[in-house]
Specification:
Shape of chain B: globular
Radius of gyration of chain A: 21 Å
Number of domains of chain B: 1
Number of strands of chain B: 12
CATH superfamily of chain B: P-loop containing nucleotide triphosphate hydrolases
Structural class of chain A: alpha/beta
Order of helices and strands of chain B: EEEHEEHEHHHEHEHEEHHEE
CATH class of the domain at 5-93 and 175-260 in chain A: Alpha Beta
Largest interface: A-B, 43 and 46 residues
CATH topology of the domain at 5-93 and 175-260 in chain A: Rossmann fold
CATH architecture of the domain at 5-93 and 175-260 in chain A: 3-Layer(aba) Sandwich
Largest sheet of chain B: 8 strands, mixed
Strand order of the largest sheet of chain A: 6-7-8-3-9-10-12-11
Number of helices of chain A: 12
Oligomer: heterodimer
Structural class of chain B: alpha/beta
Largest sheet of chain A: 8 strands, mixed
Shape of chain A: globular
Strand content of chain B: 15-25%
Helix content of chain B: 25-40%
Distance between the termini of chain B: 26 Å
CATH superfamily of the domain at 5-93 and 175-260 in chain A: P-loop containing nucleotide triphosphate hydrolases
Distance between the termini of chain A: 49 Å
CATH class of chain B: Alpha Beta
Number of helices of chain B: 9
């Protein structure tokens, strides 16, 4: 079965100062997503997670451009679509949930109007059926008494409720893929847990695929089937969540997991030294080498390519490459 | 056990709620903090955990003398701080410092890092220019920054480095208690671990006490010796951090643990038992404030407010179940 979404060798660059400064925000990123599957895009701020997602939905800011690679969604090539065609895909096929629900809801329109809009335009539902559809959607995201709540306005709802409304809007067009960009960052822990449970239920009922952008590995452990760890515009390691948590191969994945506080344990955390690099001044070699505890001499000169670790599991690291390792061992011997 | 450094006794802070433009009428009170009893010992970290609106930040403001309590006392070194004046008050303000959540708004963009750190020293000590510079360099090294960065401005630093600068400023005056109001929530994962290790290291070398306010259970549990769980202005449970993690007693604490994210995909989690959201502090439920959301609520819970009892050594919980 062909995957629902296949992103291959995607390159999205930001151009500034008339093209004299180029930032490779997304640098040859590849991943696939099947129907009903959830992938977690993990990484620190500025690593290109959001730019990857914006490339998929075609909402890049004016300074950014896709310069290479392809995005294949349900058999169609998205990078060649015109804005008009993309408008018909967004909302109907691919929906997005953003971080701040107050900023993604319009304070002047009632909840009903905002949830109804995608169903009205993309699914051509009208009249009483539309009202019923909105109530169904609000019930699916577990908003109590939807018939009365849908007449309210965003300011009358709490943060958790608002984010659920955003979820209902995302579902309204009946999409096959939802991209959730840090959807729970502004929510309290118990509200976050409730919201994640709601998203999971929605996914089980509708079979929608999810891309979860987050810096929180706990969310990935709870929600995702596979994960891709991004650093400085590249995916350094990707595979099944269980495999990566059990035996991470890339030093960065290992470091991220070691930096995560675990409940009931007082063991010192692994602090990754230094800062993420400036994307405008990346040299050759591996971008993580300056912070890596296992950097080899060749890491400074040659950037490692994707190496297979196991089926559906790759890592960009010389340590995974047996031949490079042997070369290194014989070089120091 | 040594004498407590900071002691809050039955601390209350009510904010009036008024209506009307010309004829302002009081229509009620928001009981932001309602009867808080906690102690912090020298060299100890007390974690304060709760959801937004539970009164964590009001508590920190009361300790920092940014708000005056409606009732109750705060004792520092055994002395009631409401009675402090002049030199004594200055000493309190010198020895109790704060680090805020967002290092992008807590550091003045117009001041050099050196001046930011030197400002409390200029107010509280009469060091010479040279001694000031020396002290600034010293605290910058303590938090793992180069002394040369004193000449730079905050915008030249990343979030993690700015938070280090904020910690350096808080440490500059030979501080004994630092209120850490969500100091790592705004930082990236890799930087978060750096700052937490740094804070632990500083405590070991300097013996400073922390009040660590947060909403992420794993983070607070990692750094704290004891944890106080706060709900709608009251402490519902207080225990040693490892004991709380292994044996949470109050239904709200249990709910917080089941809401915590797993640290491994294989970790099984019972589904969250509580529903709904935190009620408004303007009109808190009668009796136990948690009873409308509590899965074990009994008729008694809506009539009678539970008192915090010691159920195990150093483990107190306010619940009718125990």
């Amino acid at each position: 079965m062909a995957p629902l979404l296949r992103v291959s060798e995607l390159q999205t660059y930001y151009f500034s100062f008339g093209g004299s400064r180029v930032v490779k925000a997304v640098d040859r990123v590849s991943f696939t997503l099947n129907e009903g599957e959830t992938i977690g895009l993990v990484g620190e701020s500025g690593c290109g997670k959001t730019t990857t997602c914006l490339s998929v939905v075609g909402l890049l800011p004016p300074a950014a451009r896709i310069v290479g690679g392809s995005i294949e969604f349900a058999g169609e090539e998205l990078t060649e679509k015109r804005p008009r065609e993309m408008r018909r895909i967004r909302g109907r096929q691919i929906a997005m949930i953003l971080q701040d629900p107050m900023a993604s809801l319009n304070p002047l329109f009632s909840i009903y109007r905002q949830v109804a809009e995608p169903a009205y335009y993309h699914r051509a539902i009208r009249g009483r059926a539309l009202r019923q559809r909105v109530q169904e959607l609000l019930r699916a995201v577990r908003i109590p008494s939807p018939a009365t709540r849908m007449r309210e306005y965003p300011h009358q709802m709490s943060g958790g409720m608002r984010q659920r409304v955003v979820g209902a809007i995302a579902m309204a067009g009946g999409p096959k893929l939802i991209i959730a960009d840090e959807p729970t960052t502004n929510l309290d822990v118990t509200i976050q847990a409730q919201y994640l449970d709601v998203l999971k239920d929605i996914q089980q009922e509708s079979g929608v695929a999810l891309i979860f952008v987050t810096h929180n590995l706990g969310i990935v452990a709870k929600m995702c089937d596979k994960m891709a760890v991004m650093y400085a515009g590249k995916i350094l390691e990707q595979g099944a969540v269980r495999d990566l948590f059990r035996a991470p191969k890339h030093p960065y994945t290992r470091a991220l997991l070691g930096a995560m506080p675990k409940l009931g344990s007082k063991e010192p955390l692994y602090a990754i030294p230094g800062q993420p690099p400036n994307l405008a001044q990346l040299g050759p070699g591996c971008a993580f080498r300056a912070r890596c505890a296992h950097a080899l001499p060749q890491c400074a000169t040659r950037a490692p390519e994707d190496r297979p670790v196991a089926p559906h599991w790759t890592a960009k690291c010389w340590l995974v490459d047996e031949r490079a390792k042997e070369e290194y061992v014989s070089a120091i011997a | 056990m040594s004498a407590p450094l900071l002691e809050l006794q039955n601390l209350q802070k009510y904010f009036p709620v008024s209506t009307g433009v010309l004829l302002r009428r009081k229509i009620g009170w928001v009981k932001a903090v309602d009867g808080l009893d906690i102690t912090i010992h020298p060299g100890e970290t007390l974690g304060l955990i709760g959801e937004s609106g539970c009164g964590k930040t009001t508590t920190s403001k009361l300790i920092l003398l940014q708000e005056t309590p409606t009732a109750g006392t705060i004792r520092f070194d055994g002395e009631d701080i409401a009675a402090l004046e002049g030199q004594e008050l200055m000493r309190y303000r010198r020895e109790v410092q704060v680090v805020f959540q967002d290092p992008y708004s807590s550091l003045s963009p117009r001041m050099r890092v050196g001046d930011i750190i030197a400002e409390p020293l200029e107010i509280h000590t009469n060091l010479s220019r040279q001694e000031l510079e020396h002290r600034v360099a010293e605290v910058l090294e303590l938090v793992g920054l180069q002394p040369e960065v004193a000449r730079l401005f905050p915008h030249e630093f990343s979030g993690g480095q700015r938070q280090r600068i904020a910690i350096a400023r808080a440490l500059a005056t030979n501080t004994r208690l630092i209120v850490l109001d969500e100091p790592v929530s705004a930082l990236d994962v890799s930087i978060r671990a750096q700052i937490m290790n740094q804070l632990e290291h500083l405590q070991q070398t300097l013996g400073v006490s922390y009040l660590f306010i947060g909403h992420d259970l794993a983070t607070v549990a990692h750094i704290s010796d004891r944890i106080a769980v706060m709900y709608l202005g009251q402490i519902v449970e207080l225990a040693d951090s490892l004991e709380l993690c292994t044996k949470p007693l109050h239904p709200y604490t249990q709910a917080l643990f089941s809401a915590a994210l797993p640290s491994h995909p294989d970790q099984r989690h019972e589904k969250l038992a509580i529903s709904g959201e935190v009620p408004s502090a303007l009109d808190p439920p009668p009796g136990c404030r948690f009873h409308p959301r509590c899965p074990y609520a009994m008729p008694r819970c809506s009539r009678e407010a539970p008192v915090r009892n010691e159920v195990a050594p150093q483990h107190t919980v306010a619940c009718h179940l125990y």
